[in-house]
């Protein structure tokens, strides 16, 4: 009987290791990394669409210099931040990244609002294609962000719940920052369009 | 007095449950995937549905890709794109890992439609092309009230785009999916069986019972029957080894009931497991 009790204890301990959160933390951490890479991927895709979009609009609305400049400036700001997987571990850099992307979004919004003024531009086939691509990319960004937020939520829940929080403390897993909505009021009000 | 308090408690609990369930009604429920075309507004006749369905089934047999069509009254309070991604994750159009699914969603009362494209088909059906199909082929028909013509034209365009794309050939039988939890479950089964044995139950009995429970679980999660039995036998033998080893009876673990092979669908209609939708596609309004 004694050997069977010992063996049982051994099995139960190995079970504890696999069920008290260690494996869950590992797989959730990896899910976060891949979800984040997807978010970065989609933001990059949007940034890549910008030059074509600007050139197409310039073809019809050459003198709207201010709008083009703000878009180009926002794009270079976004490009200047080195978007790496490590970004999610650094709260300050993460916030800066979010802010740069939000500025990109509002600059794009203004560009598209300006384009509304030019019916020939609106009728242009390549502009419509670019607009469709931009809309698609914005949707993809939203979906990627939602998935990232879900991944962070699952991970944070595991890190904070008992008994996996003990495992987390033991191996140095901490909660990770989530997407915040800074200047929430500013985002909820649409950008003013001055003609 | 106690009875009265219990009644109040019961009423409070009931109220709480009702209010909680009311909160969960914010988003509409995902309609069940009962076939390749799900028409909740009776806009199409059954002959029309059958004709489009045969085209879609033909595409799946030829290329393996799945196109689904959903016509529903409204996606409110959600935007059709928000609803679309939830739907795509539930219906899982397309093959697993290949993600070659497309879902055409028509929200009739909202006068909105969307083509949701899976990751594997983003090369064949880029967002700009989806938008063009919507604007140039489907919406003109919808504006005249021809729902069948609009949907049919859109579906034919999607089919020809997919046919032109190089995709992995459709498999004749689905492969095996090995559930990851079998490992820890196996260890747990041996532990539980050994525990039962140390409490006095005969080693053979506890090993056999737990082993057969594990086999049945393995079959439920679509493991091949021979693999599930091997797990069951493993538990049985290990329990014998760790127990006092006093006699044993014939093993009790065997497969019971019906089983399905790997990811294939046995009865009912289901998507191919392709949940890889990243929000690509296009929407339109008429």
Instruction: Kindly state the percentage of residues in helix of chain B.
Output: 40-55%
**Helix segment tally of chain B:** 8
Instruction: Extract low-pLDDT stretches of chain B.
Output: 244-267
Terminus-to-terminus distance of chain A: 88 Å
Residue share in helix of chain A: over 70%
Radius of gyration of chain B: 26 Å
How would you characterize this protein structure?
The complex is a heterodimer of chains A (195) and B (286). Chain A is mainly alpha-helical and 195 residues long. Chain A contains eight helices and no strands. In chain A, α2 packs parallel to α4 and α2 (22-60) runs antiparallel to α6 (125-160). The longest helix of chain A has 39 residues, at 22-60. Chain B has helices at 2-23, 46-63, 80-91, 127-143, 147-163, 182-198, 203-220, 225-242, and strands at 37-39, 66-72, 101-107, 112-118, 277-285. Chain B is 49% helix and 12% strand. Chain B contains eight helices and five strands. Mean pLDDT of chain B is 79; it is low at 244-267. Chain B is flat, with a radius of gyration of 26 Å. The A-B interface holds A 1, 3-5, 7-8, 11-12, 14-15, 18-19, 38, 42, 128-130, 132-133, 135-137, 139-144 and B 81, 85, 126-128, 130-132, 135, 184, 187-188, 190-191, 194-195, 197-198, 242-244, 277-283.
What are its keywords?
heterodimer; A: 195 residues; mainly alpha; 0% strand; B: 286 residues; alpha/beta; 5-stranded mixed sheet; 5 strands; flat
Please sum up the structure shown.
Helix content of chain A is about 80%, strand content about 0%. With about 200 residues, chain A is mainly α.
Write the layout of secondary structure elements.
The complex is a heterodimer of chains A (195) and B (286).
Chain A: H1 2-19, H2 22-60, H3 65-80, H4 91-115, H5 119-123, H6 125-160, H7 164-171, H8 184-188
Helix pairs in contact in A: 2-3, 2-4, 2-6, 3-4
Chain B: H1 2-23, E1 37-39, H2 46-63, E2 66-72, H3 80-91, E3 101-107, E4 112-118, H4 127-143, H5 147-163, H6 182-198, H7 203-220, H8 225-242, E5 277-285
Parallel strand pairs in B: 1-2, 2-3
Antiparallel strand pairs in B: 3-4, 4-5
Helix pairs in contact in B: 2-5, 4-5, 6-7, 6-8, 7-8
């Amino acid at each position: 009987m004694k050997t069977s009790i010992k063996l049982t204890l051994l099995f139960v301990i190995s079970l504890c290791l696999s069920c008290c959160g260690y494996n869950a933390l590992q797989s959730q951490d990896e899910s976060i990394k891949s979800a984040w890479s997807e978010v970065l991927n989609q933001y990059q895709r949007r940034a890549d669409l910008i030059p074509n979009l600007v050139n197409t609009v310039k073809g019809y609305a050459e003198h709207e210099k201010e709008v083009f400049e703000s878009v180009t400036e926002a794009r270079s700001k976004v490009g200047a931040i080195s978007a790496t997987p490590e970004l999610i571990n650094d709260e300050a850099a993460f916030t800066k990244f979010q802010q740069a992307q939000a500025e990109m979004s509002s600059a794009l919004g203004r560009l598209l609002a300006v384009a509304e003024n030019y019916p020939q531009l609106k009728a242009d086939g390549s502009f419509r294609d670019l607009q469709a691509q931009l809309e698609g990319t914005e949707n993809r960004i939203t979906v990627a962000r939602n998935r990232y937020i879900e991944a962070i939520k699952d991970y944070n829940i595991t890190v904070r719940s008992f008994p996996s929080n003990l495992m987390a403390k033991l191996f140095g897993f901490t909660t990770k920052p989530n997407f915040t909505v800074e200047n929430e009021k500013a985002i909820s009000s649409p950008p003013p369009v001055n003609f | 007095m106690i009875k009265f308090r219990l009644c109040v408690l019961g009423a409070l609990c009931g109220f709480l449950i009702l209010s909680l369930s009311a909160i969960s009604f914010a988003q509409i429920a995902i309609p069940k995937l009962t076939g390749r075309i799900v028409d909740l507004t009776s806009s199409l006749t059954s002959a029309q549905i059958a004709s489009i369905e045969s085209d879609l089934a033909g595409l799946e047999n030829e290329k393996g890709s799945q196109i689904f069509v959903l016509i529903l009254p409204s996606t409110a309070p959600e935007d059709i794109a928000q609803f679309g991604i939830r739907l795509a994750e539930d219906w899982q159009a397309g093959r697993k890992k290949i993600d070659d699914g497309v879902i055409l969603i028509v929200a009739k009362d909202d006068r909105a439609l969307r083509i949701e494209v899976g990751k594997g088909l983003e090369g064949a059906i880029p967002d700009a092309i989806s938008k063009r199909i919507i604007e140039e082929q489907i919406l003109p028909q919808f504006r005249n009230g021809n729902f069948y013509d609009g949907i049919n034209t859109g579906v034919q365009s999607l089919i020809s785009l997919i046919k032109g794309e190089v995709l992995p050939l459709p498999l004749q039988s689905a492969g095996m999916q090995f559930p990851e939890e079998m490992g820890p479950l196996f260890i747990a089964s041996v532990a539980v069986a050994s525990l039962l044995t140390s409490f006095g139950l005969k080693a053979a009995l506890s090993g056999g019972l737990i082993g057969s429970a594990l086999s049945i679980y393995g079959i439920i999660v679509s493991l091949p029957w021979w693999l599930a039995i091997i797990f069951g036998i493993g538990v049985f033998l290990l329990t014998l080894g760790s127990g006092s080893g006093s006699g044993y009876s014939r093993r009790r673990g065997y497969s019971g009931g019906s089983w399905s092979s790997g990811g294939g669908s046995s009865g009912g209609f289901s998507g191919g497991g392709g949940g890889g939708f990243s929000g690509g596609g296009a929407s339109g309004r008429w």
